[in-house]
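Backbone-to-sequence.
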């Protein structure tokens, strides 16, 4: 892997970390809101299969986005560590 690729991974990781910090709490609130909406519809007897699928789809989408961002953060940290090792060897 060349230096440009390493730098790109480090930069993507830093950006993902900043964004993750901003949206992590909000995403938890969103998931709770979705679950509350589904629970309310269930208690009222108006929960349809479609509503349930949409609600679960929204939660899965949020979690997938967060997982993807966590992966980018880890890759960025790993690339930064590798970069530091290369600098120390030189």
């Amino acid at each position: 892997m060349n230096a440009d690729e390493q730098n790109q991974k480090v930069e993507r990781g830093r950006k993902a970390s900043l964004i993750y910090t901003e949206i992590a709490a909000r995403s938890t609130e969103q998931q709770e809101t979705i679950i509350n909406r589904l629970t309310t519809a269930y208690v009222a007897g108006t929960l349809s299969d479609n509503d349930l699928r949409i609600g679960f789809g929204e939660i899965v989408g949020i979690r997938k986005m967060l997982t993807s961002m966590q992966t980018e953060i880890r890759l960025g940290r790993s690339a930064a560590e590798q970069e530091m090792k290369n600098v120390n060897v030189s």
